[in-house]
Amino acid sequence: MATSSSQQKPFLYLFSISAAITLAQVPSSQMFTYVHEGEEPFFCWVWDANRGRPVGENTTLTFGTNGNLVLAEADGRVVWSTNTTNKAMVGLRLLSSGNLVLHDSRGWFMWQSFDHPTDTHFADQSLCLSSLTKLMSHKSETENLEGMYSMVLEHRVLTLYMDASTKPLPYGQLLTFTSPANVTLTAEDEGNNAWSVSLMLSTSGGRSLVQPKYNTTNSILRLQIDGNLVVYTYNEQVDSEPTDRTLVYFSDNIRGVSRCELPSKCGSLGMCKDEMCVAYPTPKGLLGWSEDCSPLKLGLCKAGAANAAGYNKVVGVENFLSRFVKGEGPVKVDECKSKCGSDCNCLGFLY
Ligand SMILES: *[C@@H]1O[C@H](CO)[C@@H](O)[C@H](O)[C@H]1NC(C)=O
Ligand SMILES: *[C@@H]1O[C@H](CO)[C@@H](O)[C@H](O)[C@H]1NC(C)=O
Ligand SMILES: *[C@@H]1O[C@H](CO)[C@@H](O)[C@H](O)[C@H]1NC(C)=O
Ligand SMILES: *[C@@H]1O[C@H](CO)[C@@H](O)[C@H](O)[C@H]1NC(C)=O
To answer: Do 59 and 90 share a domain, yes or no?
Structure first.
């Protein structure tokens, strides 16, 4: 457990892939006080309790005699709590799996951080249909807020969504299955010096994500700020930079999916081909892509004006929308033009 000195002062982060994970047994009523620390630790943050609700100086985290774990501002205002008052909780433990648990005298978990995932999924952690758990990306490196991307377990599919508008848009399908199931991230020794990290269904089957040649016990799956999905594995045998990116889901490697299918890859309207951002459309036709190209600043929208101004036809566009979103059809191009032209939120359409 550690505190952070970043400007937003998020609180209560846990490490998962540090070599020495502390098994903290905190006696009732013990109180932690928020302190400023000079340096960010080498290992990355993997869980936060109070995302979007940063706390100030002298904040306290208290495990009370009533069994409730409470994060409160210096003035006593409660920012976050486990809601376990009078549930006979006697201990708080950080397990080697990365799970923070509150347990009763028989050792049964009554609350666990695994039921409240943020952007990181640990080995042995499950996404459960019943509790609607999902991963949500962070907004940015500096803002501890929810981002645009989520990984959601649904009845027959594990889906990546981009939430850019009123309706979340799917941009990836990690697993599809025939009957409802929970999904667990597993790290396994497959024998013969082969290891795997997989997404396993509680029914049967699943999907192997990576098979490195070293111990994958300490692995996490993270939904990155840009919507990419990355497996990090901590390799004890290595001294410098022991944390490997064992899988980058949207990438050009064999196991991944084309980088072009990552919505954030080429900005709002950039065109992607063979893993590269190649062009973006303008009224003068296609121009070479650069980091700062962006859609035109539009004037005041008048419904129908787009039809008069005309459309540019861009051939051969690959877009994540055409893979996972069912279009409307059959329709004629002109019908699409007139529909888009009468909607001020419409900037273009795929046909
Ligand atoms: C935090 O606690 C220290 C020591 O008690 C005190 O000097 C300081 O003013 C407190 N800061 C805030 C913002 O309450
Ligand atoms: C505790 O209860 C409050 C109010 O119902 C809720 O907003 C909060 O999310 C709960 N906290 C946890 C950790 O479940
Ligand atoms: C999924 O997990 C929940 C909570 O642990 C459990 O109640 C449910 O039976 C599981 N469903 C399946 C299909 O395994
Ligand atoms: C793999 O790593 C875990 C955690 O460090 C350790 O407990 C386990 O014994 C290792 N397994 C093998 C076969 O080395």
So the answer is: yes
